[in-house]
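Annotated sample (chain length 165).
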Amino acid sequence: MHIRFDVPADPAYPSRVAAALTTDQLRKYLYVGAALAAAGAAGLTVSRSLGWGDQIQPLWLTMLMGGLLAMLYWPWVRLRARRRSSDYAVEGAYEITDDNILMRSGSQSSGIAWDGVDQVKATPEFWILYVGQMPATVIPRRLLSAEDAETLRAYLAERGLLQVR
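Output written by the structure step:
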Protein backbone atom coordinates (compact mmCIF):
# COMPACT_ATOMS: atom_id res chain seq x y z
CA MET A 1 0.00 0.00 0.00
CA HIS A 2 1.25 3.45 -0.88
CA ILE A 3 -1.12 6.40 -0.51
CA ARG A 4 -0.04 9.99 -0.94
CA PHE A 5 -2.21 13.11 -0.85
CA ASP A 6 -1.83 16.81 -0.19
CA VAL A 7 -3.55 18.96 2.42
CA PRO A 8 -4.38 22.47 1.18
CA ALA A 9 -3.80 25.54 3.34
CA ASP A 10 -7.39 25.82 4.61
CA PRO A 11 -7.80 28.15 7.64
CA ALA A 12 -10.67 26.01 9.00
CA TYR A 13 -8.81 22.68 8.73
CA PRO A 14 -6.59 23.01 11.87
CA SER A 15 -9.60 23.86 14.02
CA ARG A 16 -11.51 20.82 12.73
CA VAL A 17 -8.50 18.65 13.55
CA ALA A 18 -8.24 20.17 17.04
CA ALA A 19 -11.94 19.54 17.63
CA ALA A 20 -11.67 15.94 16.45
CA LEU A 21 -8.65 15.22 18.64
CA THR A 22 -10.24 16.67 21.80
CA THR A 23 -13.77 15.28 21.46
CA ASP A 24 -13.16 11.93 23.17
CA GLN A 25 -11.00 13.42 25.87
CA LEU A 26 -13.51 16.12 26.81
CA ARG A 27 -16.71 14.09 26.60
CA LYS A 28 -16.18 12.80 30.15
CA TYR A 29 -16.56 16.35 31.49
CA LEU A 30 -20.00 16.53 29.92
CA TYR A 31 -21.12 13.30 31.61
CA VAL A 32 -19.59 14.11 35.00
CA GLY A 33 -21.03 17.62 34.83
CA ALA A 34 -24.50 16.34 33.99
CA ALA A 35 -24.37 13.89 36.91
CA LEU A 36 -23.20 16.61 39.33
CA ALA A 37 -25.81 19.08 38.11
CA ALA A 38 -28.58 16.50 38.39
CA ALA A 39 -27.49 15.47 41.90
CA GLY A 40 -27.18 19.10 42.96
CA ALA A 41 -30.60 20.03 41.57
CA ALA A 42 -32.24 16.98 43.15
CA GLY A 43 -30.58 17.61 46.51
CA LEU A 44 -31.51 21.28 46.44
CA THR A 45 -35.12 20.45 45.62
CA VAL A 46 -35.37 17.76 48.31
CA SER A 47 -33.71 19.90 50.97
CA ARG A 48 -36.07 22.80 50.26
CA SER A 49 -39.19 20.63 50.18
CA LEU A 50 -38.30 18.85 53.44
CA GLY A 51 -37.50 22.13 55.15
CA TRP A 52 -33.96 21.16 56.06
CA GLY A 53 -31.84 23.92 57.44
CA ASP A 54 -29.84 26.36 55.39
CA GLN A 55 -26.63 24.56 56.32
CA ILE A 56 -26.89 21.83 53.65
CA GLN A 57 -28.26 23.93 50.78
CA PRO A 58 -24.86 25.46 49.87
CA LEU A 59 -23.54 21.95 49.24
CA TRP A 60 -26.29 21.20 46.70
CA LEU A 61 -25.93 24.60 45.10
CA THR A 62 -22.17 24.08 44.78
CA MET A 63 -22.74 20.68 43.15
CA LEU A 64 -25.25 22.20 40.73
CA MET A 65 -22.95 25.06 39.76
CA GLY A 66 -19.90 22.77 39.53
CA GLY A 67 -21.83 20.45 37.24
CA LEU A 68 -22.89 23.31 34.99
CA LEU A 69 -19.32 24.59 34.80
CA ALA A 70 -18.01 21.10 34.00
CA MET A 71 -20.55 20.81 31.18
CA LEU A 72 -19.43 24.19 29.79
CA TYR A 73 -15.75 23.18 29.92
CA TRP A 74 -16.01 21.09 26.72
CA PRO A 75 -17.37 23.85 24.46
CA TRP A 76 -14.98 26.38 26.01
CA VAL A 77 -11.90 24.23 25.28
CA ARG A 78 -13.09 23.50 21.74
CA LEU A 79 -13.73 27.18 21.04
CA ARG A 80 -10.32 28.07 22.41
CA ALA A 81 -8.64 25.35 20.31
CA ARG A 82 -10.40 26.66 17.21
CA ARG A 83 -9.25 30.21 17.87
CA ARG A 84 -5.67 29.20 18.62
CA SER A 85 -5.29 26.83 15.68
CA SER A 86 -6.67 29.15 13.01
CA ASP A 87 -3.19 30.62 12.47
CA TYR A 88 -1.73 27.22 11.55
CA ALA A 89 -3.18 26.97 8.04
CA VAL A 90 -0.26 25.75 5.92
CA GLU A 91 0.01 23.29 3.08
CA GLY A 92 0.91 19.77 4.02
CA ALA A 93 0.92 16.20 2.80
CA TYR A 94 0.43 12.64 3.98
CA GLU A 95 2.27 9.56 2.80
CA ILE A 96 0.83 6.29 4.08
CA THR A 97 2.59 2.97 3.55
CA ASP A 98 2.30 -0.52 5.04
CA ASP A 99 4.86 0.44 7.68
CA ASN A 100 4.04 4.01 8.73
CA ILE A 101 2.23 7.30 8.24
CA LEU A 102 4.40 10.28 7.33
CA MET A 103 2.92 13.75 7.76
CA ARG A 104 4.30 17.05 6.56
CA SER A 105 2.91 20.43 7.53
CA GLY A 106 4.81 23.45 6.30
CA SER A 107 8.46 22.85 7.16
CA GLN A 108 7.68 20.29 9.89
CA SER A 109 7.38 16.57 9.34
CA SER A 110 6.71 13.58 11.57
CA GLY A 111 5.70 9.99 11.34
CA ILE A 112 3.97 7.21 13.23
CA ALA A 113 4.69 3.52 12.73
CA TRP A 114 1.60 1.35 12.34
CA ASP A 115 3.02 -0.92 15.04
CA GLY A 116 2.59 1.95 17.53
CA VAL A 117 -1.05 2.60 16.63
CA ASP A 118 -3.42 0.85 19.05
CA GLN A 119 -6.76 1.81 17.52
CA VAL A 120 -8.33 3.99 14.86
CA LYS A 121 -11.73 5.62 15.36
CA ALA A 122 -13.73 6.61 12.33
CA THR A 123 -15.63 9.89 12.26
CA PRO A 124 -17.42 11.36 9.26
CA GLU A 125 -14.44 13.57 8.44
CA PHE A 126 -11.37 11.84 9.93
CA TRP A 127 -9.79 8.63 11.00
CA ILE A 128 -8.37 9.38 14.45
CA LEU A 129 -5.22 7.36 15.24
CA TYR A 130 -4.60 6.49 18.89
CA VAL A 131 -1.26 5.64 20.42
CA GLY A 132 -2.18 4.16 23.77
CA GLN A 133 -5.21 6.04 25.07
CA MET A 134 -4.21 9.36 23.49
CA PRO A 135 -5.22 10.56 20.04
CA ALA A 136 -1.98 11.06 18.12
CA THR A 137 -3.07 12.34 14.72
CA VAL A 138 -5.84 12.27 12.17
CA ILE A 139 -6.12 11.16 8.58
CA PRO A 140 -8.56 13.40 6.69
CA ARG A 141 -11.00 11.13 4.87
CA ARG A 142 -12.41 13.77 2.53
CA LEU A 143 -8.99 14.48 1.02
CA LEU A 144 -8.48 10.85 -0.02
CA SER A 145 -9.68 9.52 -3.34
CA ALA A 146 -12.43 6.88 -3.10
CA GLU A 147 -10.02 4.11 -4.06
CA ASP A 148 -7.38 5.21 -1.54
CA ALA A 149 -10.00 5.55 1.21
CA GLU A 150 -11.24 2.02 0.57
CA THR A 151 -7.69 0.65 0.45
CA LEU A 152 -6.85 2.30 3.76
CA ARG A 153 -10.15 1.20 5.35
CA ALA A 154 -9.45 -2.40 4.30
CA TYR A 155 -5.90 -2.18 5.66
CA LEU A 156 -7.14 -0.81 9.00
CA ALA A 157 -9.83 -3.50 9.24
CA GLU A 158 -7.31 -6.23 8.35
CA ARG A 159 -5.02 -5.10 11.19
CA GLY A 160 -7.97 -4.95 13.61
CA LEU A 161 -7.48 -1.25 14.27
CA LEU A 162 -10.69 0.27 12.92
CA GLN A 163 -13.53 1.17 15.28
CA VAL A 164 -16.65 2.85 13.92
CA ARG A 165 -18.24 5.48 16.16
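Annotation: The chain has two domains: 2-10+89-164, 13-87.
Annotation: The CA atoms of residues 4 and 95 lie 4 Å apart.
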